[in-house]
Amino acid sequence: MANTRTLEKGAKIVLASHNAGKLREFSMLLAQTGITVVSAASLNLPEPEETADSFEGNAAIKALAAAQASGLPALADDSGFCVAALDGQPGIYSARWGGPQKDMHIAMNRVHTETGNNPDRSASFVAVLCLAWPDGETRSVRGECHGHTIWPPRGEHGHGYDPMFVPEGDTRSFAEMPESEKNTLSHRGKALSLFLKECVAG
Ligand SMILES: O=P(O)(O)OP(=O)(O)OP(=O)(O)OC[C@H]1O[C@@H](n2cnc3c(O)ncnc32)[C@H](O)[C@@H]1O
Ligand SMILES: [Mg+2]
Question: Smallest Cα–Cα separation from 15: which of 68, 67, 80?
Fold first, then answer.
């Protein structure tokens, strides 16, 4: 049956992410919405293991864990960098390609090395947002941003794989744009617009 439960405009939610770059983007994107946000870290919520085989599955694991531990609706983001020459890898393993420290220089170098001389430079970012309520109900939305990889990486803004990704229609990497501009083009920005339309009361 279709699920129509929505968040009220002034609702307080937990942002179930431990990634500082994502949290910065979400606080900018949610600033005008009237939704109050507390972070999982500020509530000392543990980081659950991401054991699913899809963005949707992992976003639900993170959102449900935070909603059940806090008693508040929780919004999680599972995202990744999908490189055509690598058959969509690193994908859901994007954070893990950075090793135990999630070192994104290591992760970007691995993408570069494994791509080798393949002339196909297309790549996409994907973000799946899942909103979970403490009783176990969930809703999710997906946003994608298509573009291509560059090497060497360029730019100082952003986070993660941003320095090696140029979105379609631009010549700058995500890390060469102010984050406010990245948010208007990005997978996360697109997913959040859908979330606000579909999951927040008018
Ligand atoms: O699970 P949480 O706590 O939210 O934090 P995380 O960093 O582990 O996040 P993910 O499991 O969703 O892994 C996503 C990976 O993809 C990268 N990534 C996601 N969105 C990105 C973006 O907008 N720009 C650059 N890299 C991004 C990010 O650096 C992570 O390595
Ligand atoms: Mg993670």
Answer: 67
